[in-house]
Amino acid sequence: MPIEEGKIVDGVVANITKFGAFVQLSGGKTGLVHISEIADTYIKDINSYLKEKQEVKVKILNIDKDGRINLSIKQAQEVKKSTRPVEIDWQQEFKKSQSGSFEDRLSRFMKESEEKLQEFMKNRESKRNGGYSRKGDFAQR
After folding, report:
1. Do the Cβ atoms of 63 and 55 come closer than 8 Å?
2. Residues 77-96 as b or e (16 or more Cβ within 10 Å = b)
3. What is the DSSP secondary-structure string of 92-126?
4. Residue ranges of region Disordered (predicted)?
5. What is the pTM of this model?
6. Burial class (CB within 10 angstroms; exposed 0-12, middle 13-18, buried 19+) of 31
7. Spans of all domains in the chain
8. How far does CA 40 lie from the centroid of its chain?
9. Hey, what CATH topology would domain 8-72 get?
10. What is the tens place of the pLDDT at every residue in 57-113?
């Protein structure tokens, strides 16, 4: 099977380093999966994600002019989440917002606004104090 950019192929982890893992592809070629291309999360220790001789699916990102192959495990994984936007029935949403009298809608709006403002002020105050909610907390720690 020829090695081409963009293809997803099977491989076996041949060697693990601090900066990534070398994966043996079919045909005897070896490519590098950089640490940033192993998972979507921060990786401190590659050994917690991969083991030598482990079979993995990799996507061939590119092959440079010197023949080095750059691979990605995270891009080879199937996208499980739907990338399609959520359908919203705007007519239904409009009808919901129009239910009740003007006074009811105004009172609901005022209540929601007050809650949002209180949450905003609470977050702003905690950031201003370096994460502490009261001035006394800082002195006690």
Report:
1. no
2. eeeeeeeeeeeeeeeeeeee
3. HHHHHHT-S-HHHHHHHHHHHHHHHHHHHHHHHHH
4. 117-141
5. 0.54
6. buried
7. 8-72, 90-127
8. 5
9. OB fold (Dihydrolipoamide Acetyltransferase, E2P) (2.40.50)
10. 999 999 888 889 999 999 888 644 445 666 777 777 777 666 777 888 888 889 999
51/42 Cα distance (integer angstroms) = 18
Let me know if 63 is exposed, middle or buried by CB neighbors in 10 A (0-12, 13-18, 19+): middle
Cα(13)–Cα(26) distance, integer angstroms: 12
* Helix and strand counts by DSSP (H, E) for the chain: 3, 5
Which residue type is seen at 129?
A: N
Label residue 117 exposed, middle or buried (CB < 10 Å: 0-12, 13-18, 19+). Answer: exposed
